[in-house]
Amino acid sequence: QVRLVESGGGLVQPGGSLRLSCAYSGMIFSNDVKGWYRQLPGKQRELVAFMTSDGSTQYADSVKGRFTISRDNAKNTMYLQMNSLKPEDTAVYYCNVRKFITNYEYWGQGTQVTVSS
């Protein structure tokens, strides 16, 4: 059974940093695409960043240069380092795994990030 568990959310002041972690277990492999999404209040869930099996990354324009996605295959964990946070980054953040070939997706439970002074 696949399980994704996020941690690291919280309250941070504008300009601050947070690192989100997503520990995954079960049938998740290095060739699966791993990513982060977020859902702002009253909005649709949107892609923040993803990483493919060869380490290539893509970012939403709104977070380029501020957020960094990474993974540690040995620890079965992916990360989202968020720097220079802005109030508009306030959202529930979800980690996501999209299976190689089938494109079936798994989701974590979400972690709240609030950027406010």
Structure overview:
The chain is 0% helix and 52% strand. Strands 2, 4, 5, 6, 9, 10 and 11 form a seven-stranded mixed sheet that branches. A four-stranded antiparallel sheet has the order 1-3-8-7, with no helix packed on it. It is an all-beta fold. It has no helices and eleven strands.
For the secondary structure, the number of strands is 11
Q: What is the CA-atom radius of gyration, in angstroms?
A: 14 Å
The residue-averaged pLDDT reads 95
Work out the strand percent: over 45%
Short description:
The chain is an all-beta fold and 117 residues long. The protein has strands spanning 3-7, 10-12, 18-25, 33-39, 45-51, 57-59, 67-72, 77-82, 91-98, 105-107, 111-115. The chain is 0% helix and 52% strand.
Task: Itemize the secondary structure elements and their pairings.
Elements: E1 3-7, E2 10-12, E3 18-25, E4 33-39, E5 45-51, E6 57-59, E7 67-72, E8 77-82, E9 91-98, E10 105-107, E11 111-115
Parallel strand pairs: 2-11
Antiparallel strand pairs: 1-3, 3-8, 4-5, 4-9, 5-6, 7-8, 9-10, 9-11
